[in-house]
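Forwarding the complex inputs:
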Amino acid sequence: MLTPLQDATVNLALVAGAIVVSLMVLVVLHASPPYIRRWVIVVVTFLAGLYVPLEFFIPRHNFLTVWRDPIGDLVRVLAGFTIGLGILNLLIVHGRHLLQRTTNFPFSLAFFVGFLSMTVVEFLHRYKPDLWAKKAGADQLPFWTAAHKVLFEGMLLPLTSTVFSLLAFFIVSAAYRAFRIRTLEAGLLMAAAIVVMLANVPVGTWLTSWLPTEGWLKWLRFENAALWLTTQINTPTMRSILFGAAVGGLGAALRIWLSLERSFAAGSQ
Amino acid sequence: MEHANWSTIYPWLVWFLTALIGLGILLASLGMPLHIRRLPAIDAIEEAVGRATEMGRPMLFVPGLAGVDVPTFQAIAIAGHIARLAARYRSRILLPVTDTVILTMAEQVLREAYAEGGAPEAFHPEDIRYLSGEQFAFASGVVGLMNRERVAANFFFGNFAAESLILAETGQALGAIQIAGTPSTLQIPFFIAACDFTVIGEEYYAVTAYLTREPILLGSVWGQDICRISLAALILAVTLSHKLLQKSPTVLKFLGL
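Prediction (whole assembly, two chains):
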């Protein structure tokens, strides 16, 4: 269904036609009064929300299944439209800082330098890796491929890892606050944490290694106590929270599908 | 994608639960009186907005890391309610996003919320910012925003991953009042440790009902509670009659056991 055409001219004409129709729809929607927009949103949300469960619940390959891929493509195209808006948002916010020379303008300058260099380098690396540069030898990387590796593997990945590694320090400060014994619950949390932490280091298991491995006393060994705490206390608790959240998610999905959440009805005005 | 297997309990269960929630909505719209228990974390939202106003500093709302999904939709709905409160005091809300679809949705919801709150001029479109689609680039962007703008209140609602603690600990260090809510069980402990108030599990999906007290939304929360009771009863019944069920392979297969 809706397979790509082999003729490039027809393809181009179809793409151009689709862009023109999309723009016309956007203009009409923009010009229409809020209550019309509200009803468009309500009807589209309802139909889209109806399609997915119906397609799933009707057994086997059915008359709706053939539309699955085209609808997936449509959603991707709609999301593609918004990427331009995202970039526009970044350019407006940082452009304003730069033009008005606010106190934070160096950050905006860094954004423009990063944004432009990444865009240009990635584009040239993909399509013209030797442009404006000496032809790379057999054992050499083309200039723009090397530049891509410097920017992505030499800068972006280490920066990402650096932010991730900050987590280790934040865990310590959060744990310090969580383990301050001020209430009975905090005391229990602290006791459980000590048991689980000791069970996960060799010295912890060594401390209680003299206890028997059979009989009721085996439960006092740190590794067994930790196993009991994680599988019999922690796992059921986490599952019950997940259980409640899953049912809550179903209810929220139903409210969004039927446009009962006022914020999304877009017609609160 | 597979299709539903009607010889098992699962598709029946989904429709049964949906019908129960629908029943709750119907009963509420017919005027059945409903009560929702107190949620201190949500009561603290107004206090946080008031504090930010007093300090003359903006608030930060992070709708999580996910794209278009139910928790993020719920988060944007909560942002709309907070924006209505903020509009009363002419306060600013900064809302950074990781997904460009959410950017347009959030902008629309907040614009309308400020207009409804009686202060359309207090809404600044540039306060809704797309930072990055990459997890830690987004986290560092939010941390930078918090520090530069010296935010007085942080709201973290939505799906979060490892960046949750980076955001919450930075807010804690800044002395901001912090309210978080997530259905993600792995991030709940981090938020509890680093935030002043945390909404967990099913409470997350009851926030809009609690804030608006709209009968239809309260009805859906009531329906969800009936669903949980029904599911718990089903689990208990299957567990207690497990020995008996062993004799009937058809029933066991239907139950997916």
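Strands of chain B lie at 59-62, 93-97, 128-130, 153-157, 177-182, 197-200.
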